[in-house]
Amino acid sequence: MWKLLRVLLISVLILCSYYSFSFAAWPSGPNTKMILAALGLVWFLFDSWRQGRGLPFTPLMTGGAIFAGVYSIINLVSVEINATNDYSYANYLTTFFVWVFSIYPAMAMLRLEYGQVTFTRVTYYLAGVSVFQCISALLIDNIPEVERWVTSIVYYNAEFVERIDRLRCFSTFLDAAGVRFALVLILIAGCLGSDQELRQRSENIIYLLLSFFIILGIGSMVSRTTFIGAATGIVIYIVQSFLGPVKGESSPSKIVPIFTSIAVLIIGGSIYLYSTDPYYYELIRFAFEGFFNLVEKGEFTTSSTEVLKTMWQWPKDPQSWIIGTGAYGSFLFGTDIGYCRLILYSGLTGFVTFALSFVFYAYMLGTRYRPYRWMFIALCAMTFIIWVKVSTDILMIYAFMFWLRPEDDTLIFKQAQS
Fold it and tell me: Is the confidence at residue 289, as pLDDT, over 80?
């Protein structure tokens, strides 16, 4: 019983950070991520004092903080030069530390529960929390009592949600949900491809692959960005497989037959629902619109990609290309495209700095954890893929990895080589 309660507590901490939300009772107050960041900072300082280690910032975290600080300064310069009042990314250094410390309570609890933290352990929890978000979307959309209960806890713009008429999860929706789902799918694929202990445990493989398909299916109904993570994850798994048998793997992996079995069941069930239920017919057509258009029209396209084609807006003069226009949050240029919004805000100077920070994270982690290098290549690729659609970043997934310790590395490499 106590074990279950501890697992639920860790899950709640991860949900409130990774899928943060504001409270319905206090919409203008701090959201769950901010509250956890304050708790995480105090907890971190206490742990540092108790262990006599001072402030053990890793080179990864220090480098990230430097990039975030430089990017914030560039954005402040852009705002000053252009005489605007748009500080959307000018406080990115604060955003960086809020993300980083909001994860600390969950990582500290994982360490208390298991002794050591690995990518696979983090992925188990992220997968479970993401499945909860996906299932909650269908429950909220079909059961009024569940919707009222969620609305009493989580603040959301009811008018906006009603207008867009899309599935809403417990505490996330639209591209914010899709990006997070996509990152979790990449982690699942990365762990299945690199963790040799995991690859020999059928029940763990079933859990992760079942989670993979649930997140892919329902997550794509929430946001089609989810599918990008699934496709990227499958690609890196195939690449790893073609590179040859993984060192230390003495018997054939159980992943492919389990993947095939679950895929057949899920696809069969989806075809049945698509054919018999108008509700799921509409959801499935939306989630996989590109494939339906490819079959019916001979072209892989979606309504959102057609809209994006009209949104490419670029700076009009050399100064704007160099340092931007200082405008981001007002939607002045009428574009959702991340590349456009970020360059228009602080020019190529700001954009290149911001982009290099995510290359830095992937390089540092891929070098440190070579068995997982394809996973970090995929995460790096996701940064640049999602900017075609939105201007969000993926710092939230790297924040977990900022808190890995040398003793964790020992177990991570043991799992990859056993």
Answer: yes
